[in-house]
Amino acid sequence: MVPYLVQAARRKPTPYTPVWLMRQAGRYLKEYRELRERHSFLELCKNKELIVEISLLPLKKFPLDGIIVFSDLLLSLEALGLNLVYPEEGGPKVLNPINSLEDVEKLSNFKVHETLAPLSEAIKTLRKEIPPQVALIGFVGAPFTLCCYAIEGRGSEGFLKTKRLMREAEEVFDKLMGKLTRVSKLFLEEQVKAGCDVVQVFDTWVGVLGPLDYERKILPYMKKLVEGVENVPIIHFSTSTCGFLELISEVGDVIGVDWRIEIGKAWERIGYRKAIQGNLDPSVLLAPKEVIKEQVKSILDSVSGRAGHIFNLGHGILPNTPEENVGFLVDLVHSLTGG
Length: 339
Description:
Blueprint: H1 4-9, H2 30-38, H3 41-46, H4 48-61, E1 66-68, H5 75-79, E2 84-85, E3 93-94, H6 101-106, H7 112-129, E4 135-141, H8 143-152, H9 160-168, H10 170-194, E5 198-203, H11 211-226, E6 234-238, H12 245-248, E7 254-256, H13 263-270, E8 275-280, H14 289-303, E9 309-313, H15 323-336
Parallel strand pairs: 1-4, 4-5, 5-6, 6-7, 7-8, 8-9
Antiparallel strand pairs: 2-3
Helix pairs in contact: 4-7, 7-10, 8-10, 9-10, 10-11, 13-14, 14-15
């Protein structure tokens, strides 16, 4: 059968609204934390058996309609030759960030297949192990979000170094974006080839830009990224992009929105030719169940039962989220929409 999540991504009617959650295989799970005590984060991302085990953890606890393959979007930077580390505190870091055209020209795809091998094998195994009604979701980092890490070396408030380079060293920026687009496309295509039903493109940091910069400097690369990928739906997720949703919606079959906009109004602006995903504030899952129910009903009322809605959060699950509340959320969405 075609998973309900895939049907919704194609704007087909489904018996209930399908649900999956960003970072559903993460630190809020006791079993994940136990694995993290024994392995580094990169070990978890590069071991086929561990990728499979972690990806399946949430499905063993909750009746989710999709599982996302456990990995990290920054692995594509490592595949290009950037040195990536994950300290216990403070987030990932690139030890040799991009500062010049010479730095960009040193980047090469030589490690892509080595980096992809355990991920591809894990996807093939997962495809055999999960029920046919559950969608298998792959993901890649969008070129601009990868570019931010490659230039800044870490997460940053405002990504001013990246924006300055974009405007003052156009050749460096454009060559870097070209290489990042090609490596992300390789990651995307390999995950589809290995068996993913859907792929999500994460553009976490693109909201630091305005519409003019996005349209001129980013959108052409996003179109190249998904060009020719027609056999599986593409979810295009970004944050803080309410100011240029119409431009965001030019790429992808499903547009993932955060909680900063009412989802029904977002869909009106995007247009009903696209499916939509979202958009519960992750912090709501820290609240009492009656608050969760109120917020979920508000989202479902906003989309008015229209075919093409995939329920998700507006960002990843917070590490201190009670597992009980995640189960409550999934059951609630299913029950309120006919499941």
